[in-house]
Every structure is written in structure tokens, then in C-alpha cells.
Amino acid sequence: MSTDKTPETTPEHHSTAELRAEADRARAALAGTLDAIEYKLNVPKQVKINTRRFTLGLHRLGDDNPLALAGIALGAAATVGTVVWWGVKTVLDRR
Fold first, then answer.
1. What is the pLDDT of residue 29?
2. b/e 64-73 (16+ beta carbons within 10 angstroms → b)
3. pLDDT tens for residues 12-64?
4. pLDDT at position 9
5. What does pTM read for this prediction?
6. Which residues of 44-55 are buried (b: 16+ CB within 10 A; e: fewer)?
């Protein structure tokens, strides 16, 4: 029976500074992960960001191609008008 310790079973010894540095790295990684999760799951923040993107896209489209923007606006207005007309017609037909 041998009492010699092989390198596989010898525990690693770290200085206090190394352990603190490792803990700081782990905390930073955890903080980054939590920030990423919060960013993805914060619905009001996502709505705000996507609204800004959409608005900026419309402004750019208006600057680059005003006729396309006018066509989109006309199509949206026609769609909304049609949906409202169908809704009113349905309500009146049920009476």
C-alpha cells in the first residue's frame, strides 16, 4: 500500500488573490448573463426599442422614397377602414 500522492489526487492550492480574481470573473459572467436575460424578457423595454426601430425605419423610408411611404400609408388606411366597415356592418346586421 503506497502513500505517495499522485498529481491526479493532489488538490490545487490557490492564493487568496487568485481565488478573489476567479470569484470576480464568475460574478462578471453571471452579471452579463442576468443582463442578457433581463434584456430579452423585459417586454416593455422590447416594445419601446422595437417602436423606435419602426419609427426610424419609417423616417428613413420617407426620406429615401416618399412615394413608397405614401403607398404604405394609403394601404394601412384602406385596411383599417375596411376592418371598421366590416365591424360596423356586422353589428348592424345582428340587430
1. 96
2. eeeeebeeee
3. 788 999 999 999 999 999 999 999 999 889 999 999 999 999 999 999 999 99
4. 60
5. 0.52
6. eeeeeeeeeeee
CA distance 28 to 77: 49
Rg, Å, the chain Cα set: 31
Do residues 58 and 69 lie in contact, with contact meaning Cβ atoms separated by under 8 Å?
yes
SS (H, E, C) the chain: CCCCCCCCCCCCCCCHHHHHHHHHHHHHHHHHHHHHHHHHHCHHHHHHHHHHHHHHHHHHHHHHCHHHHHHHHHHHHHHHHHHHHHHHHHHHHCC
- pLDDT tens for each residue of 67-78: 999 999 999 999
